[in-house]
Amino acid sequence: MPGRMRRNSACDHIYLETDRKPCTNGTMGDIRIAVQPPERTQAGTCLWPPIIAEQTVRDADSGVDYFATAAVMDRQGSVVDGHLAGTKAASRSPIAASKPGRETFVFPFTDLAISQPGAYVIRVDVYKFLQGDPAGATLVEQLETNVVCVGSSPVSPGSPSTDEQSLLRRVRDAGISMATEP
What we know:
Residues 1-181 form the Velvet domain. The strands form 4 sheets. Strands 4, 6, 8, 12, 13 and 14 form a 6-stranded mixed beta sheet that branches. A 4-stranded antiparallel beta sheet has the order 3-5-10-9, covered by helices on one side. The protein has a two-stranded antiparallel sheet with strand order 1-2. It contains 1 helix and 14 strands, in the order ββββββββββββββα. It is mainly beta. The protein starts with a strand and ends in a 9-residue tail after the last helix. The longest helix has 12 residues, at 162-173.
C-alpha cells in the first residue's frame, strides 16, 4: 500500500502515513477509529483516551461476528513486537446508536500501554468471522491511529474531543468496562 512521510509536530518525528479509507461495503458498514489515543504519553502508562474503533451498520447480519486486534507500528510502518502491553484483542460490543435506523458497535482497547519511548501508530485489524466456516476469520479492514509520542517522563493525560467524550459516555452506558480518566 502506498504511503507518504509526514511530520508530527507533537513529538518532532517523521513517520510513514498510509492511505486508509473507511470500509463501506454491504452489511459490514463503516468502520473507523472513533476515539484516538493521546498525542503524548509516558512509557508504560495506559493510553487515555483509550483507542476505540466504531462500526456503524444499517442491518447487522446475525450469522456474522467481528473482532479486532491491535498492534504497535514504528515510524516506518513496521510492527514492533513486545512494545504494546494490555488487552490486544477486542470483541465487537453493541452500544446506543447515534443515528436512527443504524446499529453501532465498538471495539474497545481500554488498557493499552506502549512500553518504550518513541513515535508510534497503533494499527487496528478488524476481522469477520462466519460461525461454522472452516476458513476461520477474514481480515476486512486495517485502521491506523494518529501518532502517539511516548517519552520516559510523566505527561498530562490526553483530552478527548467532544465527539470522543460522547462516544466514551455511550460505551460506559453500555456497561463496557474501562478505566476512568486519570
